[in-house]
# Entry
Amino acid sequence: DQQVKQNSPSLSVQEGRISILNCDYTNSMFDYFLWYKKYPAEGPTFLISISSIKDKNEDGRFTVFLNKSAKHLSLHIVPSQPGDSAVYFCAASSLETSGSRLTFGEGTQLTVNP
Amino acid sequence: NAGVTQTPKFRVLKTGQSMTLLCAQDMNHEYMYWYRQDPGMGLRLIHYSVGEGTTAKGEVPDGYNVSRLKKQNFLLGLESAAPSQTSVYFCASTRDTAGGYTFGSGTRLTVV
# Structure
């Protein structure tokens, strides 16, 4: 069963506009959520995270929103830039789970057009 | 400061052959992980380790073995490779969940 799901395999936006990437989860034990960005032929890199005690976290152009009741989180990128074109993975963890294991979604390919 | 280094970067195996993937980190991280990435399936955890000398199964452990004899190294072994193990393998490490993982650049393995 897919506990973390990214329903959109791809997203295309114009440079300067907002990119919104979505993620849903089913495991109510998850209390920590992260977004990773991946370029071709490279490993994923950590982007931003949010704890379940918050509903919003910002870091520059990136904002993550968490809706616990809906078990949904989203990543907003404003303004989008061509260099943001990459695969974005949503990940979740329970801080009580041994080993800090992360469960990843399938990924969304973001393309930002100049 | 190399971070997480994976070797080799590419490998082609014949069905039934064995090989070992090496992951090395220089950040003194306690936790290390092996994931595989397949199209449309994201990253799935194979095995992980919470410290030197310890290993545990992840989501898709069958057909793989691991060892963590030294804190900085985490080895992933395939005893008898199968075409279903064709994938991109990523190693990662972390000090704790809050800091996120540091990933290696991946090993692309093809089993023919």
Remarks:
- Chain B has a mean pLDDT of 94.
- The radius of gyration of chain B is 13 Å.
- The interface with chain A takes residues 4, 31, 33, 35, 40-45, 48-50, 56, 58, 90, 92, 94, 96-106 of chain B (CB under 8 Å).
